[in-house]
Amino acid sequence: MSSPQQSAWAPPPPRTDRPDPAATKDFHHAHEHNRLALILALSIAVVSVLGAIVGWRAETHASRASLLEQDSVAASIAATQIRAQADAEAGKADSNYVHYRRLADQANELSPGACGPDGSRRTLSDFDAGALCQTQVQFSGYSSTFYVDQKGNFEQQRYAADYVAAQNERDPLDPEVVAGLAETERHHEDAMLYLSLVLVLSLALLTLARVGKSVPARLLLAVPGWLCLTGSAVFLIATEV
Amino acid sequence: MENPLHEANEQIEHLEEAPESRLKVVITVAILVVTMLTTGAGVLAAIWSAHQSETQRERQQAATKSLEEGLTVNSQLASVDSAIDDSTEAQWRRTFLTVYSMELSDRSLVRDLKRQADAAQKVAGQIDARLPKGARDSSYSDRLNQDSTTESELAAAYARESAGWLEKHNGALSVVSMLALSLFLLGLALTLGNRPTQIGFTGLAMVMTLIAAARLVQIDGSTIKAPTEDCIRTAAQANAFVVDTQYKQAEGKLQTALATCPSYGEAWSALGQARFYQGAITNSPAAARQLWPRAQQADQHALDVADTKSGELYNDLAFMQMLNHDYAAAQANLAKARELSPQSNYVLGSLAELAVARGDDTTAERLLREAALRLKDAGPYLRNSYFFASLRDDHGYFKQAGITGPKVDTFFLHAREYEALLDSGAMSSPLDTHGAGITDLVFRRSRSVLGHVAKAVTIGFRYHGLKPGDVIALRFYGYQDTTYDTVASFIQRVNDGSPLLVDGVEKPDSHFRVTLASQYETTLEVYLNGILQGETTYTP
Predict the structure, then answer these.
(1) Which of A123, A211, A234, B417, CA to CA, is 20 to 30 A from A149?
(2) Mean pLDDT of the residues in chain A
(3) % of chain A residues with pLDDT over 70
């Protein structure tokens, strides 16, 4: 068996101090590529964490809104009940006042001026009228001018409003105020939901950027992704902190 | 020669044992776990959503029922009130016709008047026979409203329960979105060639999955703070006992309800009230010392379990703390109450009471004046039957709690004077008697026929220095000087032609004869231009 043919010895190429431009460019490109990939990976991680936080905030706002809405419903039921009680009390007062007015009218019909200081009592009609006048006094509890209009009619609505005002002195929950608070929470929840859409967009852009082959192509997608991410972070801090 | 297929197989096995392959196995298993967890969270969200819809429907049913019953009760009350007024009218007419028949000597007139009186009596009897049992009791409307109140409480409870289910549902959805993100990270990690990034993404996804799983367990384990129907019905029975002033029984029922539903805020408030009134009706300081600290505890629980803490809850707790001499805590809670309810005169009144209890009469007077000025344009119901009536009640509670002294008495006297002043309307010299006065009050049963037949009372007094523009208010209060008698009370304005001018004596049974609303002890308070001139009591 013959030994393989050895090639003739040749000296190595002369060393030069200047690097090869093409190789350097490739090296830089690869380095930048790796650094960008790392930044993109970190960005995706940040978007994911931010997405989880936004989801949690949206849930918190939704729960608060729902609780407030139910409180508003409960307060509304309570307010309706107070209103119903007020109407019942006002009706009672009105019935009393109607008797007060009617008794005076009947007395005056039987004997004109019977309830006045000059009312005289001689006949049966006069005494009947007198009894009606005396009875009228027993119905004077609601004859306060506060509840009687200029025509002498009892203002049921005014009495009911006074009753409601008295019940509200203890300042129970105002259904409208609570509903307003619920509305605010719903707005916050909506904001978080829109924010999550922006974050999904950011996630898509950053993921697509990561599979890009060249640095410019990656940056073309990554920059809008970062903008979305930064904007979302700023918005989240501004609205939630 | 070796089989090339066997060699390839060995190489594959070798590759599978490489660290990259192990990581891929881990990621794949993690994806499986996260997917299962996501499915579980989704299913729970659906179940909780169904519960939420069900309770929402029950809430709507209860609310509708409450409103329907409320309307029925109101129409029933309207007809009962009208019938009571008709009966009252007939009875009084009979009384006055009888009085006239006893005062006259003309026999034919007397006979006719008696016949009329009998007819009126018959009418009253017929109406009374038609009235439902207990219709004249002051608690009749409360009893009638009980079902409607219970249904409205049920509706509120269902609303709270529905909110609880919705909270769980929202929580599950949030978990699903977090798991979706970790699923995405795991999927991305599978496609990557860079090992550190792969590990980073996988680690982050695992952390997020763990957090999501823990949150799901927490949501599943959380209880919904809403009373059950049983608890509400038991509390309604307690309320029936309260209406009948059986506070001890009410306390027992409420304790039963709270043993099952410890987060039932309204029941804690009701328990506080039951214990408070249980002590208050005894009028005994020893009973107050025993029961009121327990009432305070119940009020504290009511505040603690409330989702939305209202000024009312802080005020109620502060008032009990005040009566139990815990002034620092009362001050802090009233500050909260004021913050939450800045427009409430009720809270302002409590602040004034606390100030006087602490001996700061200057602040107390300032706050009382502020409340009185704010009530200037309010209606008589709000002033007399609510705000000042509460202050009158509180004076009694202060005495029972041992919060006494000249400053306290002066404060509550001024409250009464503001009440009289605001009720008297315009006057030439408010809170100034310019040296005039009313003395030697007489308040007794009238010795006339009216007094004999209708138990009418009469009043008398001596007056001096009265001039036109002065206003005399004669105010009657029943039930331990707390309930204003709107029928018997009256205001007398001094005019130029008035018999009550300058100096003189108003003799009993000469002008003033009135019938009282209360069948028990009644107090007459006489005010001149809003300044108390004297008070005296009469017991039939």
Answers:
(1) B417
(2) 82
(3) 84
Contacts of B172 (CB under 8 A, 6+ apart): B41, B42, B44, B45, B48, B216, B219
Pick A58's closest partner by Cβ from B159, B174, B182: B174
Residue type, A13: P
Digit-coded pLDDT (tens) for B32-72? 999 999 999 999 999 999 999 999 899 889 888 888 888 88
Amino acid letter at A10? A
For residues A2 and A90, which has the higher predicted lDDT (pLDDT)?
A90
Residues of A in contact with B315 (CB under 8 A): 170
ipTM: 0.77
Show the tokens assigned to A224. Answer: 């809008």
The rounded distance, in Å, linking the Cα atoms of B513 and B534 is 19
Structure tokens at A35: 């650094």
User: What's this model's pTM, rounded to 2 decimal places?
Assistant: 0.77
Residue identified by tokens 């029941």 is B267
Nearest to B159 among A48, A70, A99 (CB): A70
SS3 content of chain B, % helix, strand, coil (to 5): 70, 10, 20
Q: Which helix (DSSP H) or strand (DSSP E) does residue B459 occupy?
A: strand B457-466
Based on the number of CB atoms within 10 Å of its own CB, is B307 exposed (0-12), middle (13-18) or buried (19 or more)?
A: middle
Query: Treating both helix axes as pointing N-terminal to C-terminal, what angle do B229-243 and B247-260 enclose, rounded to 10 degrees?
Result: 170
**B292 close to B261: Cβ distance less than 8 angstroms:** no
Classify residue B220 as exposed, middle or buried by CB count within 10 Å of its CB (0-12, 13-18, 19+): middle
State the Cα–Cα distance between residues B104 and B377, nearest whole angstrom.
47
The helix/strand count (H/E) of chain A reads as 5, 0
Question: What one-character DSSP code corresponds to residue A199?
Answer: H
Query: What confidence tens digit (pLDDT) does each residue in B162-193 have?
Result: 988 988 998 999 899 999 989 989 988 888 77
- Nearest Cα of chain B lies from the Cα of A103 at a distance, in angstroms, of 9
- Selection from B315, B292, B288 nearest residue B302 by Cα: B315
- Token readout for B6 is 């066997």
Are the C-beta atoms of A159 and A90 separated by less than 8 Å?
Answer: yes
Q: Which of A63, A95, A161 sits opposite B85 (nearest CB)?
A: A95
Tally the C-alpha atoms within 13 A of residue A195's C-alpha that lie toward its C-beta: 29
Eight-state DSSP code of residue A154: B
* Residues of chain B contacting residue A67, judged by C-beta atoms under 8 Å apart: 163, 167, 307
pLDDT tens figures, B220-276: 998 888 889 999 999 999 988 988 889 999 999 999 999 999 989 999 999 999 999
> Which site among A35, A53, A63 would you substitute to test the B interface, given the most B Cβ atoms closer than 10 Å to its Cβ?
A63
Angle among Cα B290, B293, B298 to the nearest 5 degrees reads 125
Going by C-alpha positions, the residue among B142, B148, B141 that lies closest to residue B63 is: B148
Q: In angstroms, rounded to a whole number, what is the distance separating the alpha carbons of residues A48 and B433?
A: 80
Structure tokens at B463: 């007056």
Chain B residue with Cα closest to A173: B310
Q: What pLDDT digit, counting tens, does each position of A104-148 carry?
A: 899 888 888 877 766 677 788 888 888 888 888 888 887 777 888
The helix or strand, by DSSP H or E, that contains position B13, with its residue range, turns out to be helix B4-16
